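Troubleshooting: if your tokenizer reports a length mismatch, compare your output against this known-good record of 299 residues.
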Amino acid sequence: MRKMFLMAAAAVIAVTGCVSKKDYEKELEQVKLISAEKDSLLKDVMATTQFIADVNTELGRVRDAKAGKPVQGAAGELPNPSPAEQRTQMLERIKQLTDRVNEAEARLAASRQRVAALSGDNAALTKQLAQYDSTITAFKSIIDNQKAEIASLNAQVSALTGEVAVLKTDKAQLTSEKETLTSEKAALTVERNTVYYVIGTKDELRKKGIIVKKGGILGIAATDIPATTLNPADFTSVDKTKTAEIALPNPDKGYRILSRQDVTAAEAAPPKGGYKGAIKITNAEQFWAASKFLIIVQN
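Known-good structure output:
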């Protein structure tokens, strides 16, 4: 392209009229300078365009990357940068790109001034300058487009940064909610599995208000039954899933269950004297289903 430009320029100089060899060589040198300026600017524009394409490719990688986690490369390779690291690197690339476009624009203006100074009153060079101006106008349009692309890249990076911030907030909120649900589940599990038992004589249990007499006439033939309202503080709490038997304090005494537990879910008491040593539970869910409060009375 440059060779054709020089040949056309030489032809134009030749047909403008008879000039001395010295003037001809001077004008030809000026044409060479104009051509060199054009080639240099063209290289700058092409390099910047490639730079923008590279940044666009990197932006696509960041957009498609998995949230916040480095991707393992092939065997022997280091992990790829995380999206956050890639965004930082890309912002630096865009800054370099902006600087390069600004430099190209400044060079464009300076080149225009140098070429204008070369032309002087020479009609042939003035014509070449007009062609050069056309080229500069085209390059200026490309640079303006590149600036618009840079603005778009910055906007996309800002959008990605905002999306990552939102995702981090959402993740933190979900983590907090999960921890709350886990705590609530644990608390509910403990509450559901917690049962209570108390062991004592009738008099001891009556004094605490755990059992009361009901029925009979003037207290005669009255029956002991669990009180309507029971206070867990008067009982021993245990986890029903971890309690297979309840030890009875006096091995020489017999005990009976006064509350509403399903005694078929425990080893049967001897026909005479009641339970001794311990009450062994064979099915905890069935045993405790009717009541969480077990009242054991010493005979």
